[in-house]
């Protein structure tokens, strides 16, 4: 099975060797477009570059939701600008156990763009520091641009119309309160897609902030012949997809527009109440 996680000690060793991985810091804060870069500038893994959720990993918010995927051309241009090539391994990290927004970066690089070796730092920046890893301040030089032209797999994603008419199990990564429609702090309508089940992304993590063991995830994750992962805006849904990868299960397709796109069309049905766990 392809490795999708890397431990902090393993990353530290890899960074000392020839062919060291390219590291991207994907920290972000919803509602503050510049927070991620400020956090990176205030202290980051040596040599790591900031990969911005709102500018690099998403297009402008609008009809496609709060974090719609960028076009394939735009994301390919971002990867070339950052010097990404399929020959060099990539590690992505954040400070929320991969939820914001390392898992989104992993999905976009590994699943959508087809990079053969992308791993998420298990436990994120906290694990790096606990392992004795240093943080450095300020800027990092950009590498030479690459010429990589990814072969994007659009079959890994699903559009709203397909979600509406399809029979796949919908797995919602938001909290149970948001799923049930008891609270909605971000989007204008509360509730969930009818027929969905709730698998909050935080439940993929142990108390340490690292991912649960593969066998635990395999036992817990919802089962169906075909699954669609969604959340509020297509970010934490990728955390659930990553959990399926760790468990060795078939990967769900990503509904990138997620709830923030779904509720823009008043003709789409909305369900409320019900725990919805599988």
UniProtKB/TrEMBL annotation:
InterPro entries given in the database record: Rhodanese-like_dom (IPR001763), Rhodanese-like_dom_sf (IPR036873), TST/MPST-like (IPR045078)
Source organism phylogeny: Bacteria, Pseudomonadati, Pseudomonadota, Gammaproteobacteria, Oceanospirillales
Protein keywords: Repeat, Transferase
Family matches, as SMART domains: RHOD
Domain of life: Bacteria
Domain Rhodanese per the UniProt entry, residue ranges: 17-137, 171-271
Annotated SUPFAM superfamilies: Rhodanese/Cell cycle control phosphatase (SSF52821)
Keyword Repeat: yes
Protein name according to UniProt: Sulfurtransferase
């Amino acid at each position: 099975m392809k490795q999708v996680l890397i431990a902090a000690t393993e990353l530290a060793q890899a960074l000392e060797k020839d062919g060291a991985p390219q590291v991207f810091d994907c920290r972000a804060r919803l509602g503050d477009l510049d927070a991620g870069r400020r956090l990176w500038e205030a202290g980051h893994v040596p040599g790591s570059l900031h990969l911005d959720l709102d500018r690099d990993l998403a297009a402008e918010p609008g009809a496609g939701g709060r974090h719609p995927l960028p076009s394939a051309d735009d994301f390919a241009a971002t990867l070339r600008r950052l010097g990404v090539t399929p020959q060099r391994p990539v590690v992505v990290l954040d400070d929320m156990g991969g939820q914001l927004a390392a898992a989104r970066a992993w999905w976009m690089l590994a699943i959508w763009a087809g990079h053969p070796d992308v791993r998420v730092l298990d436990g994120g920046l906290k694990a790096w520091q606990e392992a004795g890893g240093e943080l450095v301040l300020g800027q990092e030089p950009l590498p030479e641009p690459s010429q990589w032209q990814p072969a994007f797999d659009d079959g890994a994603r699903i559009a709203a119309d397909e979600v509406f008419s399809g029979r796949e199990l919908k797995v919602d990564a938001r909290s149970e309160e948001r799923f049930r429609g008891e609270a909605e702090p971000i989007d204008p309508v509360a509730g969930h897609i009818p027929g969905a089940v709730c698998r909050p992304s935080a439940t993929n993590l142990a108390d340490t902030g690292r991912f649960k063991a593969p066998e635990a995830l395999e036992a817990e994750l919802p089962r169906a012949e075909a699954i669609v992962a969604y959340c509020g805006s297509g970010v934490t849904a990728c955390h659930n997809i990553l959990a399926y990868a760790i468990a060795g299960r078939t990967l769900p397709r990503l509904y990138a527009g997620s709830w923030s796109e779904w509720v823009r069309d008043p003709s789409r049905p909305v369900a409320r109440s019900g725990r919805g766990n599988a």
